[in-house]
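Input/output pair, single chain:
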Amino acid sequence: MDHVLDNPAWNALNSGNRNLANDDSAVKYFDQEVSPFVGLREYTHKNLEQLYHQLPDDSSRILLAPHEMSFPKHWKVLGRLKGFQMVYERHSDNKVDVAGTVALTHEHIPQMLALTQLTNPGPFASRTIEFGHYQGIFSGNELVAMAGQRMHAGVYTEVSAVCTHPHHLGNGYARRLLQYQIQRMLAAGNIPYLHVRYDNARAIKVYEEMGFAVRIPVNFHFIQKGDLSV
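Output:
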C-alpha cells in the first residue's frame, strides 16, 4: 500500500498511538476500553489467524479496510458498513471561537459515554478519552456536544466522536468543535481526516463545506472470535 491512510489503524498503532498498542510483528490492537479497532500489517488470512490467537477475549472488534474482506470460518462477521475516508484539503488561518467550549477530562467520562450512546457517532468506551484533546459544550451542567481525536497515523490525525444532543441541534456546536479540532491539528503540523458512513449525506455535506474531500471508500468489518473447532 502506498498511502499511510490505506491502513490507518495499523499505521496509527505503529506511530502516533503506539503508546496504546498491544502488538505483535504482524497484528496490533487497542485495549477494548480504548477502541475496538485492530490493525493488520497486511490484509491477509494469515494475519487474521494471528489476530485470532493474539486477542485476549472474544469481544467484538472492528477491522477497517479499503476493500471488502473475507474471513476464515472461525471468525464471526457481525456486520459490515461502507463509508468514506475524508481528508482536509483547505488551509485556514481563521481564528476559532472557543467561547463556551470546555476541555474534557476523566471526570466527564460518564457524560461522554451517555452522549455517545445517545447519538452513536462511533465506538466510544471508558478509556477512549486517552486518544486526547476532547472538547465539549455544556448546557448548564449537561454535556450537549463534543468532538475529539482518534487514530493518529503519521502526520494524519483523525477527528472523531463529533456529536450533539438531539435537543441542541441547529446551534452550530458541531461545526465549532470540528473547526477547533481542525485548527489544533494544523497548528501541530498534522493533517485532519475522518471517517463517515456512506449514507450520512447531511454529515458529508457539512464536512465538504468545512474543507474535507473524499479520499477513498472504506469498509468497516465488525468481527468476533468464534469457535476455533468450526
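The helical segments are 8-14, 45-54, 109-119, 173-187, 201-209. The radius of gyration is 18 Å.
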